[in-house]
Design goal:
The protein has five helices and six strands, in the order αβαβαβββαβα. It is α/β, with parallel strands linked by helices. Strands 1-4-3-5-2-6 form a six-stranded mixed β-sheet. The longest helix has 18 residues. The N terminus is likely disordered.
Length: about 190
């Protein structure tokens, strides 16, 4: 079994670039769904990569600063999306907690359900919390930038991707005023839609 896994890794590694030691160093550790207690997706659609857009959101939930608290919030969020809104899964591709961890939502290669009209061509990243009057902490902001750079190096997003706040593309206040002002300083932020 281990030999089979190694062969698969060796066969697909060239697809994602010339890595000598696994994932690019900039890639943050991503906590997989099974580790935060997620339910299985009812269904999913694969996205065609590289994606053209990265869309930043906030969750409008309390913040979390430990894997235990973040896991509780994520499970509640996933239940809300799946049960109350009858969606296939949690809506974001990745979520970033106040503990500085990246949590897998729908993950790589899967179409999210975060921004109508853009889901099949974007990576949806949500910062856990409400960021209208304050910024996410330094760890969250750093890991958010690292995740985007990782996606670029993995060719999950195009090298000339466009970064948007969700409010630019739909009728929402997400990602909150403070976070929206912050991401305008990040690479590839696009004021025009």
């Amino acid at each position: 079994m281990q030999n089979t896994a190694l062969i698969i890794v060796l066969l697909i590694a060239p697809i994602f670039g010339d890595w000598k030691h696994g994932f690019p160093k900039v890639c943050p550790h991503i906590i997989p769904k099974n580790e935060w207690g997620a339910r299985g997706a009812k269904q999913f659609d694969y996205s065609l990569t590289p994606l053209d857009f990265v869309i930043i959101h906030h969750t409008l939930t309390p913040e979390c600063h430990s894997m235990l608290k973040c896991s509780e919030l994520l499970k509640s969020m996933q239940n809300y999306h799946m049960d109350d809104h009858e969606l296939y899964d949690i809506i974001y591709n990745f979520l970033i907690g106040g503990d500085g961890s990246v949590y897998e939502g729908r993950g790589w290669h899967k179409v999210g359900s975060h921004t109508k009209g853009y889901n099949s061509k974007s990576l949806g990243i949500a910062f856990i919390g409400k960021f209208t009057d304050k910024l996410p902490n330094t760890k969250q902001l750093k890991v958010g930038k690292d995740l985007i750079q990782c996606a670029k190096e993995l060719q999950e997003i195009s090298s000339n991707y466009k970064l948007y706040g969700a409010r630019q593309l739909s009728a929402t206040h997400s990602p909150g005023l403070m976070l929206y002002q912050e991401i305008q300083k990040w690479p590839n932020f696009n004021k025009c839609v």
